[in-house]
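pasting for ref
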Amino acid sequence: MKLDADAALQRLKDGNQRFVSEALQSEAVATPSRRREVAVAQEPFAILLGCSDSRVPAEIIFDQGLGDLFVIRVAGNIVAPSQIDSVEFAAARYDTRLVVVLGHSTCGAILATIEELGRKADEQSRSLRSIVDRVRPSVEPLLATDIGRDHDALVRHAVRANIRASVGQLRYGSRLLEQLIRDNGLRVVGAEYNLDSGVVEFLDT
């Protein structure tokens, strides 16, 4: 049965609670019979655009199994054209009603951006530029405030600002997604995973 956005969001929250309390159930949906079932077709109930960080595997932290989540991972959970295309594909093809941008505490892409912005232009890494340039708008305004004087606070606020920026790009940077939001009940929300506690906090839901 197709889940609406509210039901899909609750399923993720319940799964994360099981993960945190070490009461995982995902083994039940990773069986050989489940594998054969999803080999024929998939119906993911949520689309996750998350960071590539090895410590944030979406299926595990939400206690989901084969075929449950359509996961797109990129350093810094940034939104570039290929990420928009992938979200559009899943939302349109599978009629999935929930998109979650999943960032996490002490994100390496945020840390790299802060470090790069502290270097002279000729000392900055060309290989990091494509990521830094997309994270930069979430970091630079904070550097001009009191937050910018406290490194830990800067990282915390930049992580959330970057999540919200990616949410905004998905909500308003695609005609197809805008249409699905308006007409089909699609929701795009942000979330932050805490590496220490394992808890996912949903933002502005």
